[in-house]
Design goal:
six-stranded mixed sheet, about 25% strand, about 25% helix, 5 helices
Amino acid sequence: MRAVDCVERVDLGEVPYEDAVRDMTDWVARRRAGEIPDRLALLSHPPVITYGSRTPPAELPAGLTVPLVPVDRGGQATYHGPGQLIGYLVLNLRERGPGDIVRWVENGLIAACADLGFETVRRDTPPGAQSLVGVWTPDGRKLVSIGMRIRGGVTSHGFALNITSDLVEFTRFVACGLPGVAMTSLAELAAEQGRPAPAEREVRDAVARALGAR
C-alpha cells in the first residue's frame, strides 16, 4: 500500500457515539466525492458497548450498565468510555493501492506504542478461530481493538486504544468475541514499569505520527 500525501488530523473531545457515527458517515461520502482528504479523527466516547451483527446475544451483558448500540463495522462487542482513545479512519483505498489496511493500522499502532515506551505485537488468527485482530502485549493481553468497514473503496470506523480505561467494564460481557480475554491499558502497563501513564495528548501525537496524520 503506497503512501498518500496527506492524512488530515482532526482532534475532538468526548463525542456521543451516535453523533460520531453520523459525522463519520458524512466524511465517508465527502471523501468518496473527493471533497476532503484522507482523515484520522481522534476522540473519546461516553460509556457505550457496541456490537456487530454477528455478535451472539449470549456475549452481550445481561444487565444494562451502559447503553448497547449495534454497529455496521467488523469485529464483535467492545466497550468505549472515558480514558480510551478512539481513532476513526476515513481513507480512500483506491488511491492508496492494494494492501492490507488492517495490518497497516496494527503496525502503525505498534509503532506508536513503541514511541511511548511500550512493547506490543500483532497476532495472526488461526484458521477457523475468532479474530485476533488488534494490538496485544507479548504476554497476551489486548490493548487495542480494531473494527473497520470498507464500502465503495473508502474505510470507516477504526480503533480503540485503552489509556486509562476502566478495565472492569470489559469483564461484564464477552469482549471481542474472546471469552476470558484479558484487556489492558497504557496506565496498567506503565504502572508495571514503575512510571506514570502517558498523557492523552502524548498518545494522540504518537498515534498521529505513526499513521502519517497531521
